Request: fold
Amino acid sequence: MSEFFERNGELIQQRWPKVWQRLSVEDSAALQADRVEGLGSTLSINGIQLTSRHDRTREAALQADSLPIDSPVVHVYGTGLGDLQLQLLECSGLERLYVHILNGAVFALVLQLLDQQQWLSDPRVELWYAGDLAEIQLPYFALPSELVLADDYNAKIRDRLISETHLAFNNRRFDPDNPEIAERLQACIERVRADADAAELFATCSGREVFVIATGPSLEQHFDTLRAVRERAQRPLLICVDTAYRPLIEQGIKPDVVVTIDQRISMRHLPSDGTGDITLVYMPMVDPVVVRAWQGKRYVAYSASPIYSELRQQFPKAQLFVGGSVIHPAVDLAVKMGASQITLFGADFAFPNNKTHAGWNDGDLGPQMGAARHWVLDGHGQRVKTQLNFRSYLCELERYIAGNPGVAFYNSSRAGAMIVGTTFHPELAR
Reply:
């Protein structure tokens, strides 16, 4: 035990004994740690620099300046080398600084190498593991290096932090002043005016079980089950997302309801033949060619997006929750229809078995396996490849589930991402 580790540890043990109990057994020896020299120096962990190697103090000052200067409470995610904490503690108006550990082994190593007592001893500081809380806290600053280095225990909070940080960037293409959006909405007005309000479907299946079917690779495990269920007289309602429709039809499984919201969905995804007894729930950004060709009953819904603000005033319709993916309004529709139990199929938010989607070739729906640079934990607690937007969609679904405690949510597979708030279906999950 180094002298620094002993002194830092005594202080943490005195103030946060449960945190120290965990830190003291972290395996920091497993990390590849190197000192990196520049105009100054820093610590590199597994090839990731914790801070600038030129001027750590100036970097921390820039980071501190990005936070609200009048906030009495600030949250810092990641511990770094302590520089940002020291900068923030110089603010006279700061009453409480919450420091959330994103990688316990990294922090344990820093405690061995550097004196951290100055900020750890400040009575305004509270020290937690980030994963001890289910949600991110505002206002916050997340150290970029530790968003990359976050360990398994803190991964869910890392995902929420990255999703929140990217929110404005991700929403940029949903600008109501975008001429392409205006043109598409104008082309859909005729159908919006004529088609039914999705609210007519609400409370029509009170107490019924609903299967919500997405297009993750694990869906392929359940084609036989879904085909058999579809033939039963008394069975769950089958709601599928647009990209799952063709794979289901090709397997002889006809859903009851299809939900679609994306302007990129075409007749290739939603062929209209044989759809006379299938309900379509859509949002006005969907290609009007697809909507007009649909033979079954059509229902219109909006999201909370500002692109629909004028249409909402002209033609009031129901609103469904959208958090970036069509899985969200499909689940929200099931809840608003009155489902007491929802089982998710193909809701993987990841690429299990090195595949992107069920029933489609690699790259057919956008992402390719070779581009997967990120990970989530699957139902077995193992890391599985994914991409950033999938992690954001997962975060929003988990938040939605947390806000609907009266509905029982089941996951049909352990192959995809672990979905907080769901239970693995005792008969279906593998």
Summary: The longest helix spans residues 179-194. The chain has a mean pLDDT of 94.
